[in-house]
Write a structure and sequence with these properties.
The complex is a heterodimer. Chain A is an alpha/beta fold. Chain A contains five helices and eight strands. In chain A, a hairpin with a 2-residue loop joins strand 4 and strand 5.
Chain lengths: ~200, ~170
C-alpha cells in the first residue's frame, strides 16, 4: 500500500523487481540509476555478496516531482533471485505497490522463470494478496541472446491468459528498461486514483 | 488496508515532532526519527550540533529491512521478535523501539551519549508518542487522487522515463 505522509506532503510507492536468479533485476536498477538525472534520484543501496549476487536487496529511490502540492516518490527494490533466499524475498514484498517481473530468455531458464512466478504468487499470499491485486508487468530480458527462447513460448508459460503487459528488453544495453517501469508506475497511480 | 499505516498530521504531528526534539535533548543523541515498517521516513529530527545525516531514504530502508530480518530470525526460535535492537560501532550506534504495529522509532547516537540514557529516553518517548497517536481524534485529511491528479503524475512519468531511451 502506498504511504501518504500528510505532514510533509509526500506520497510514496514501492515497486519490486522480482524474477529468477541472474535474470537482470539488479542490472535494471543500475541502468535506471545511470539514466535518471541526479535531481530525481537518491543513493542506490546494494546488499550483495562478494561475487556481486544480490544477498538481500538493491534499493533506489526516485523523485517524480510535485502534483497538487504532493511530492510523488517511487522506491525501487530488487529481490535476491536465488532459490534459497526466499525468506528475504518475502520480507521485501511487504507493502509492495507494483511488481516488474524480470524473466530470463536463456533457453535453460524457462522452468526457473515459471518457478519464480509461482514463488511470487505464494509469497504475496503471505500478505493476503493475489497477483491479480498487485499491478504487475513482465519484462522479458536478454532478448539479444542468439539462442533466446521464443517470445511465444515464454508468454505461454508466464502469461497464458494475457493478463500482463509484456516488454522485451536487453537491460544490459538499456533497451526496454524504462518502459516496464513506466507502465507499472502508471498502473500503480491509476489504482490509487480509482480508490479515491 | 493490508499494511498498518501511521498517519501523522496537524496537531498530532506537531506534538510528535516536539517529543522527538525532547528525546534528542534528553538522550544527547544525534538524530531521532519515526519510520514505517516499509522503510519510509514519517518524521525526523536532528540535534542542532549534529553533522548532516546520511541519506534518510537509505537509512530508513536499511533500518526497516534489518528490523524485519531480525524479527524473522526471532520467529525461527518461536519468539515474536527481539525485545531490543541496539547496534554500536566505534563511534555511532542506533537504538530502535517499536511504535505499535505500524512504525519504528529510531535513535542514532554517538560516543558522546550514554547507551543507558539513550535507551531510557527512547523508551519513554515511544510510550508518549504511542499515547499521543492513540489519543488523536481528527480523521486524516481528505486528498483527492482523481483522474486529473493521475494524469498530471503520468505526465511527470513521461518527463522522467519517456524521452530518455537510447
Amino acid at each position: 500500500m502506498s504511504t501518504i505522509n500528510f505532514a510533509i506532503r509526500e506520497i510514496n510507492f514501492k515497486i519490486v523487481y522480482y524474477g529468477p536468479g541472474l535474470s537482470g533485476k539488479t542490472t535494471n536498477l543500475k541502468q535506471i540509476y545511470d539514466q535518471v538525472p541526479a535531481e530525481s534520484k537518491g543513493e542506490m543501496v546494494s546488499l550483495a555478496t562478494e561475487d556481486e549476487r544480490t544477498l538481500f536487496f538493491d534499493f533506489l529511490p526516485l523523485d517524480l516531482g510535485k502534483v497538487n502540492g504532493f511530492k510523488t516518490r517511487f522506491h525501487l527494490y530488487t529481490v535476491p533471485g536465488q532459490v534459497f533466499y526466499n525468506s528475504s524475498r518475502k520480507l521485501i514484498l511487504r507493502g509492495v505497490d507494483g511488481v516488474v517481473f524480470v524473466a530470463d530468455s536463456s533457453p535453460d531458464r524457462l522452468r526457473a522463470n515459471a518457478e519464480s512466478l509461482r514463488n511470487l504468487r505464494e509469497n504475496l499470499q503471505e500478505y493476503n494478496l493475489r497477483l491479480a491485486d498487485v499491478p504487475t508487468v513482465i519484462q522479458v530480458n536478454k532478448r539479444d541472446l542468439p539462442d533466446a527462447l521464443p517470445m511465444e513460448m515464454l508468454t505461454q508459460v508466464l502469461n497464458p491468459e494475457d493478463r500482463f503487459q509484456v516488454f522485451e528488453a536487453v537491460a544490459a544495453e538499456f533497451r526496454g528498461v524504462f518502459e516496464p517501469l513506466r507502465a507499472v508506475s502508471t498502473m500503480v497511480l491509476e489504482k490509487l486514483a480509482q480508490k479515491a | 488496508m493490508l499494511e498498518p499505516s501511521l498517519d501523522l498530521y496537524g496537531e498530532t504531528f506537531d506534538r510528535v515532532d516536539g517529543l522527538l526534539r525532547e528525546l534528542l535533548a534528553k538522550s544527547r543523541a544525534r538524530y531521532a526519527m519515526i519510520i514505517d515498517r516499509k522503510g519510509f521516513v514519517l518524521v525526523h529530527q536532528r540535534a542542532l550540533w549534529a553533522p548532516k545525516p546520511p541519506s534518510l531514504d537509505s537509512f530508513a530502508t536499511l533500518i526497516a529491512s534489518n528490523y524485519s530480518a531480525n524479527r524473522a530470525i526471532a520467529q525461527l526460535f518461536g519468539e515474536e521478535g527481539f525485545k531490543e535492537t541496539v547496534q554500536q560501532g566505534a563511534e555511532v550506534g542506533t537504538y530502535l523501539e517499536e511504535l505499535g504495529e505500524a512504525a519504528l522509532l529510531v535513535t542514532v547516537f554517538d560516543s558522546g551519549a550514554q547507551l543507558g540514557r539513550v535507551k531510557m529516553a527512547t523508551k519513554l518517548a515511544a510510550a508518549e508518542i504511542k499515547a499521543v497517536i492513540e489519543a488523536a481524534e481528527d480523521p486524516p485529511p481528505v486528498v483527492e487522487f482523481d483522474k486529473e491528479w493521475s494524469d498530471s503524475t503520468t505526465a511527470l512519468l513521461d518527463g522522467l522515463f519517456g524521452t530518455r531511451e537510447r
